[in-house]
Amino acid sequence: MSILGFDPSAYWNTLRQFWREHTPPASPHCEHLPFSGGVIGLASYEAGLACEGLRSRHPLSTPPLTALACRDLFVIDRREQALWWVSPDGTPPPPLPETPLPSSTLPPLNWQADYDEQAWHHTIDKVRSYIQHGDIFQANITMRWHSSRPERLDLLSLYQRMRTRCPAPFGAWFHTANISLLSASVERFLSLSPDGTIETRPIKGTTGIDPDPTRNEALRSALAQDTKELAENLMITDLMRHDIGRVCALGSVTVPQLCAVERFEHVHHLVSSVQGILKNTLDGIDLLAATVPPGSVTGAPKHRALEIIDEVERSSRGAYCGTLFRLGWDGSLDSSVIIRSISATAHQLSLGAGGGITWPSDAQREYHETLLKAAPLLALTEPSS
């Protein structure tokens, strides 16, 4: 299912109808499996814009909403090296496909950035001017890199290399006729358990990793005390608290973790947690519609930040800064923020990186942080050192 157009109610109403039409009469439920069938989908950043009553000035690079119904599926636990076949209709499992060996060589990609350093500085200064005049407190400003897609590029081999070089808790390979997503996302967007418990884990605040333990601990400590990064995380945590509060039972929203330093493969981040209980008259689709695009990649106040982002950025975000989600037949939901990812159409590849801009932001520092985030993906087709 691929949905085009601007009407946000059409996205979510069609998704709900699609989910219900494909739900098996006796939905399989396996307590030990995180997912035993349902809908897996990609909601683009522009689908989130539409939910806020906004339309991008840029040509769309991605269908606003793409979804697949998964009734018969293999479920793999890589940590335990276990494999299950799930089929509500009792369909016997097909022969296991052979795992293709990744290509040892990949054609070079000619990545071109939306901004050079001078243009980036000008953009950050413009956003700071909006902050100075009271329009917003913060906006997440990003740049995209684009490359033509070589005819001999094997996307699965590229993803297999991404998994090796950029392991991530929300890595994903989502392949359809219209778009493919190769994701090394480190950020959960929303999770929803069958009993209605919601959690979102916004990430804001970044520093590098040093192989020397003493210097690395100094980096961690500096991040934990960085006034600008802490303020940035706090604003986005409050934004997500507001967003999920739209669909949560009164008084159920809490913040059990605020600005904790967590280590990932290439960087340290500040990570918070917001939890709540979904109103019993609503479902995971209502939760998505109330919260996209993710707060950590937008700004505060959200609506005005979205307007400014679209004004100053130079291309549509598409899949980048949208969400990849799985909606189980049992009503459970898990999803990631689409960052540290490459999206591919028939002729083009794109990736993005960025960061939150507040009044104390330094354009030079923000530029280098953006390059730090993008570097592992930009280097994927280069030989490993």
TrEMBL record:
PANTHER family: AMINOBENZOATE/ANTHRANILATE SYNTHASE, AMINODEOXYCHORISMATE SYNTHASE COMPONENT 1. Residues 10-83 form the Anthranilate synthase component I N-terminal domain. This is Para-aminobenzoate synthase component I. Residues 117-373 form the Chorismate-utilising enzyme C-terminal domain. Pfam families: Anth_synt_I_N, Chorismate_bind.
